[in-house]
Amino acid sequence: MDRLAGKVALISGVARGQGRSHALRLASEGVSIIGFDGLCTYDTVPYKQATQDDLDETVRLVEEAGGKIVVGQADVRERDQIAAVVDEGLSAFGSIDIVLANAGIGINSVPFWEVTQQEWDDVIGVCLTGVWHTVSAAIPSMIEAGKGGSVIMTSSASAIKAAPQLSPYIAAKTGVIGMMRSMANDLSRYKIRINCVAPTAVPTDFVLNDRLYQIFCPDIENPTVDDAAKILRGMHPLDEPWIQTQDISAAVAYLASDEARYVTGIVLPVDLGLGFAW
């Protein structure tokens, strides 16, 4: 496929999971990748965070597949750090055509009145403010280039059909949708489209951990992945517990392409029917 050949994409959270999958899918369609990841350690996040080894592996996989990639370390909460990666990428590839604001974290799952200030600040900082920073760092060069483009922000199916004990996360992901709709109006005159993808559960470290098992299986002591998968399967009309990263990447590739040239300001659920389920 060559519908994206010659384009350049900026991807946040590229070290693993959905970000790595997006990088590999776009690179397979001829896109050069500018990627970054915070490689941060959060005291509030109860699962393993991305490492330099993860980022190096993304680079290896993209290059092994014949793609071009420039990466850096940048915390999405720090606009200046993102700007430095953007500048390096522009020096290497000349332009940015696609932005994937993908980076996100999840915190401990507790009733909203038990959420600490640090938990709230971390998840809002990464999942909402970080999306604003990522898009804002790239847009000036896209406007100057005058070629239009596509911005895709990662929201969540939980912003459409909320789960319990995730209020800061759902607040952030719902905020992403509202922000996207306003940004779509700001960017339309520049022929830059902006949309959201809203995935349901994906079997990455974000989901495959004890905190999520407990959310979906509150009546089971020490629930396992199999226990959670059974409950998740029952929530989805298409009768699967989760989607795969490549399913989201397929939606991203479509939204990034000229096949979606008249699509802007929408939320595209990739959710096994969760949004319309009883």
Please outline the helices and strands.
Layout: E1 8-12, H1 17-28, E2 32-37, H2 52-64, E3 69-73, H3 79-93, E4 98-101, H4 117-145, E5 149-154, H5 167-187, E6 192-199, H6 210-216, H7 225-235, H8 245-256, E7 267-270
Parallel strand pairs: 1-2, 1-4, 2-3, 4-5, 5-6, 6-7
What are its keywords?
single chain; 278 residues; alpha/beta; seven-stranded parallel β-sheet; 8 helices; 43% helix
How big is the Rg? 18 Å
* Low-pLDDT runs: none
Backbone structural class:
alpha/beta
The portion of residues forming beta strands comes to: 5-15%
Biggest sheet layout:
7 strands, parallel
Number of strands: 7
Helix percentage range: 40-55%
Distance between the termini: 38 Å
Strand arrangement across the biggest beta sheet = 3-2-1-4-5-6-7
Number of helices: 8
Round the mean pLDDT to the nearest integer and report it: 95
H-E order = EHEHEHEHEHEHHHE
Can you describe this structure?
The chain is α/β, with parallel strands linked by helices and 278 residues long. Helices cover 43% and strands 14% of the residues. Strands 3-2-1-4-5-6-7 form a seven-stranded parallel beta sheet, sandwiched between helices.
